[in-house]
Amino acid sequence: MEEKELSGWEKLVKAGFDLADIVVSTFAIVAFVCTFLIMKFDVSGTSMLNTLKDADKLLVWHFMYEPRRGDIITIKDPGYLNKNIIKRVIAKPGDKFKIDLDAGKVWVNDELLNETYIKDPGKTFGHYRDGGNWDYPEVIPQNMYFCMGDNRLGSSDSRWNGIGLIRREDIMGVAFVRYWPINTFRLFKFLFWSF
User: How far is the C-alpha of 58 from the C-alpha of 52, rounded, in Å?
Assistant: First the structure.
């Protein structure tokens, strides 16, 4: 039995349905990715200088993510900023932790961290020496993370008792790429190598 050839009008209608199917499928895939795998994040402030600048735009992976030391993470609003924040994981659960506020040095598991990414390395931690700090635990408790901004002289982070240790459930995901401004495009983490 031969297939009937479609008229011009029928071809147009079929092409319209095919296009609608492609558009709906594309939107469904994008919605799935944006809901369950990746989200956008706009940097606000200078706490991550020189690594990140104000108004940088990032993509954040949040599906089945387990924070690792050195990761740049996004964190739910700690309650007083009216915005989500971005910091670097310095110590994770079970890590032995020590910080020298006067020298601006950090030890994790008795090893001095080589923090090449921080702004103004070797300087003191400024106002944190004057009572803004709190008594850090020697060992980071389960489900908690010690996080700091790369701009140690201008970051509200785990050194301050208003933020303190970050709970695992407050970590939104890991920044893996800066896509804007386009001339500063940078891949921070190879996701498929880190699980």
Answer: 10
